[in-house]
Write a structure and sequence with these properties.
By secondary structure, the protein is of the alpha/beta class. Helix content is 36%, strand content 19%. The two termini are 39 Å apart.
């Protein structure tokens, strides 16, 4: 009786073969892991100040030194930045610096670069842009106070200020209104929560107009997370809450070009330079110079990167959405999620260069946030299989294939990552 070998991991969808995934990470010499942070290697929580990252995971990233970068819409710096979590986990900044525990890679969607030693820079960003961004957190706080002024019986005084403190993320390069806390506080006042989403969207539009008046037109854009993909104008479509789900919770005011998929090119550029001494896209290349469309980004890789040196890329994320709606009597898929585009680009590079790139999905629906759809598993012949992904079951031609999935969330992913790291070391 002949046995047919199972398809390779990059040809599978919703695979639970974590042993094969570990094997690939442990034994592939020319490897580049590009990983999201929140929900992937730590739990999703309402207040980012409550996040915790485990030392075992941080140590494991060191076994992949030179082969591992983060790519996040969060930031490295600031009181809600990743570096503070790393320092708390280790017991101080000195230990983090001595041991080179900081996570290398791109934050703020790709405009904030960090080395393992914790050295930070903002490639392609001007002082005027950073100054404008520095004033945004105060404006978010003011707008939240204005919004709640007519509802003193619902939220006011110290309770309101506490909620604002939790919701205004004073990030250096991507100041954000994070509505998770308000979503919890407005339980039972769902229409008011949706009004709040509209108010934050209005503030973001006002900020874009203010920037244009100050000579910074085109410097910024707004990232809505999670979202319903991009409209015909290229702008992201907010997900306004209906029912109990929170929809868009993060209204991020970001620097133009700070899109994760452009970050893939910036990281590949650095990876090639570290191995060959030559930057395929030039030493000064940053995400701010990159095109924005999937096709143009892929073409830039094909035109500039030597195929023989192309690593096997492993993309890791937790935010991928799709919903099928009816427009003009026809079903239309709205595809979004802040990790979708960078994962899709990694998949496409793998197909073009035949490098077996892997899209890895971590199910973060078990966290405190209710804007994630869980993977649905069934037992078949004594084996667990994933029968439904995080997207809409009616979205049958989604181009993104989630090759390997971790239904057990960040803990299950980190355990497998640490196993691979131990073997690689």
């Amino acid at each position: 009786m002949s046995h047919v070998a199972p398809p390779l991991l990059h040809q599978q969808m919703f695979s639970l073969d974590h042993a094969a995934w570990v094997d690939l990470l442990a034994t592939t010499e020319n490897l580049l892991i590009i990983q999201d942070l929140d929900g992937a290697c730590m739990g999703l929580v309402k207040d980012p100040l409550d996040r915790v990252v485990e030392i075992g995971y941080l140590e494991a990233t060191q076994s992949f030194d030179g082969h591992f970068y983060v790519l996040t819409n969060g930031e490295h710096t600031g009181k809600r930045g990743m570096n503070g979590l790393v320092e708390r986990s280790l017991g101080g900044a000195e230990l983090a610096q001595l041991g080179r525990y900081y996570l290398p890679g791109l934050a703020a969607g790709g405009v904030q670069w960090q080395t393992r030693a914790g050295e930070i820079s903002h490639p392609g960003v001007s002082e005027a842009e950073l100054a404008f961004l520095a004033a945004v957190p105060e404006k978010i706080g003011d707008r939240l106070r204005q919004f709640f002024a007519p509802y003193p019986d619902l939220l006011s005084g110290a309770a309101l200020e506490q909620a604002i403190q939790a919701s205004v993320l004073d990030n250096m390069a991507s100041p954000t209104a994070n509505l998770n806390t308000f979503h919890g506080l407005l339980d039972g006042h769902r229409e008011l929560y949706t009004d709040l989403q509209h108010a934050m969207r209005g503030l973001m539009e006002d900020l874009l107009h203010d920037a244009a008046r100050q000579g910074l037109e085109g410097s910024f854009f707004v990232h809505y997370a999670p979202n319903h993909g991009r409209g015909p104008n290229g702008k992201e479509i907010p997900w306004f809450s209906q029912g109990s789900e929170s929809g868009t919770t993060d209204f991020q005011f970001m620097l133009r070009g700070a899109i994760k998929e452009a970050g893939v090119l910036a990281l590949l550029n650095r990876y090639y330079a570290a191995r060959t001494g030559h930057y395929p896209l030039g030493e000064s290349f940053s995400v701010r110079q990159a095109p924005h469309s999937h096709g143009e980004l892929l073409n830039l890789v094909v035109q500039n990167f030597v195929p023989a040196l192309m690593p096997t890329l492993v993309g890791v994320g937790d935010t991928v959405t799709s919903v099928v709606v009816t427009e003009d009597g026809q079903p239309v898929a709205k595809r979004g999620g802040s990790d979708r585009n960078f994962l899709h680009l990694i998949q496409a590079i793998g197909q073009r260069f035949d490098t077996g790139n892997l899209v890895t999905y971590v199910d973060s629906s078990g966290g405190e946030l209710k804007n994630r759809k869980a993977l649905r598993l069934e037992e078949r012949s004594g084996t667990s299989v994933v029968v439904e992904g995080p997207g809409d079951a009616h979205d049958e031609d989604d181009p993104l294939m989630l090759n390997v999935v971790f239904p057990g969330g960040y803990r299950q992913y980190c355990q497998a990552f640490q196993t691979a790291a131990a073997r690689r070391a």
